[in-house]
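Protein in question reproduced for absentees:

***
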Amino acid sequence: MTQQSERPRVRFAMIDVFAGEPLAGNPMAVIADAQTLDLKHMQLISREFNQSESTFLLPPTRPGADWRLRSFTITGAEVFGVGHHTLGAWWWLAESGQLALSAPSNTFVQEVGESLLPIEILAKNGRPLAIRMQQEPPVFGAIYKDHRELSAALNIPESSFTLEQLPAQVVSTGVAHLMVPIKSREVLWQVRPDSQGLLAILKSCGAEGCYLFSLDPIDSVATAHARFFNPTVGIAEDPATGSAAGPLACYLVAQGRAEEGKPLFIEQGHVMGRPSLIEVQVQGSEVKIAGQGVIVAEGNLYPSL
């Protein structure tokens, strides 16, 4: 039998993202040395970690990029855009000494899919304080008007929506999600989606996930309280979703419910017992999300390569 020390190994870390303390926020796995892994192994490893997303660190393939990131869900679906799956990876790179953080503000470029996106790491004494990432300019898509179908898919009454004032609309800042306004946090916590019904709605309007929100948050610093469901890639519920928080901030600015150019905070994950706080700033077509992370575990993985 081959000794463990002789087997090929790759390093990994577990990061709690959009959290200031362990065992909160959105957990994810970061896998270093991923250039030794093929697509099949990346998908199998993502299944093994059983997180909503696992991110693999690779050398860049395009000029100007510092790192290439590939992220996969439990089901093996590759996800793009900028969110907790990218912020957590950069937090590990910063904390593990892989980056030179010589200034209070340090800029890098990440290759995610076909996009090259800047990332800013705020630091003190070489340690990260926060990470700010730029998303794609907002694209406002279809408005979903079938309130009855939406009500059935979410298992709440039609009276639960605030659709008279705010529409259910698809918005993208890299990944298209359906924004759905709910009249209160109390009702929002009662949502128990029918995955197949919600999947059909999302496919019909060109969205990947569904971001439900109310405007009565728990934390006084927050503007919205949110929950995220994504049956298209096998995510039952997510405790913090940067790729949806950016679109929601753009939506709220466009609807006159948030001020352009000022930080906006979205809370998420409370119903799952993993409270998260995501900062977003919208200035014209520029969208930036920010947050922190916590390394909660590190080790070696021994896949059969």
User: Anything to note?
Assistant: The helical segments are 39-49, 84-95, 147-154, 185-188, 195-205, 242-254. The domain at 10-134+291-301 is CATH 3.10.310.10 (Diaminopimelate Epimerase; Chain A, domain 1).
